[in-house]
Specification:
mainly beta; Pnp Oxidase, Chain A; Thrombin, subunit H; 2 domains; 6-stranded antiparallel beta barrel; 14 strands; elongated
Length: 220
């Protein structure tokens, strides 16, 4: 299940920082996983971790399923390149994240939308809520979007660090929801083709938005 050459994402546990790190799996042997030095997803810099540091790790398989497990830094070794050694989980310790488990947050994100078969003109719209599994799109007053359409959505995530993440997302229209009174119709979209890095950016954005909402609630 954990494949050599695939990316692995690490988030330190018991840390005030919420940074995430990306690395590549170099070798899986017995109860150990050998990875290259992780780089910070935001700064792209490598960071030193002490032996014994515990992480929440995640990876995506060929069917685009997301899996997580807890692991620990056991040591380091110099092979063809310097590598870190982390504990390999037992099969029962690997947890599959179901689509319904993705955190969904309300938001307002500008997005440019194009029908992938170009059967109607592109348009600009707004994302009303977002999760790592899909999003809710506000539709123009006059539109030709229908259930089953495949859309390309160019969306920008404004991160708390000030960084802007640009995503090119391929989505399937699940259905069309009627608005109330003068409200516009909406379309729930499911991500059909999303790379692991983009999914991690969305998960991070949703997490940051959750923290902001909690802070606002405590100040009321």
């Amino acid at each position: 299940m954990i494949a050599v050459g695939e990316p692995l994402y690490l988030q330190p546990l018991f840390s005030d920082k919420k940074d995430k790190y990306r690395c590549k799996i170099c070798e899986v042997k017995d109860d150990r996983i050998y990875i290259d030095y992780p780089s910070n997803e935001t700064t792209n810099r490598t960071e030193y971790f002490f032996d014994g540091t515990q992480f929440k790790a995640s990876f995506v398989d060929k069917e685009k399923n997301v899996f997580t497990f807890r692991t620990e830094l056991l040591g380091r070794k110099i092979e063809k390149i310097p590598v870190l050694i982390i504990a390999s989980p037992k099969e029962e310790e690997i947890h599959k994240i179901q689509r319904r488990e993705y955190v969904r947050v309300e938001t307002l994100l500008d997005t440019a939308v194009r029908n992938m078969d170009d059967s109607y003109p592109p348009f600009n719209s707004v994302v009303l809520d977002l999760s790592a599994g899909g999003m809710l799109l506000s539709l123009p007053v006059k539109h030709s979007v229908s259930k089953g359409d495949m859309l390309e959505c160019l969306t920008v995530l404004p991160m708390q660090s000030g960084e802007k993440i640009y995503l090119d997302l391929q989505c399937k229209v699940l259905r069309i929801l009627d608005g109330h009174a003068k409200d516009r119709q909406r379309a729930p979209l499911q991500f059909e083709s999303i790379d692991p890095k983009s999914r991690q950016h969305i998960i991070r954005f949703c997490f940051e938005q959750q923290l902001l909402m909690k802070k606002r609630e405590t100040t009321i």
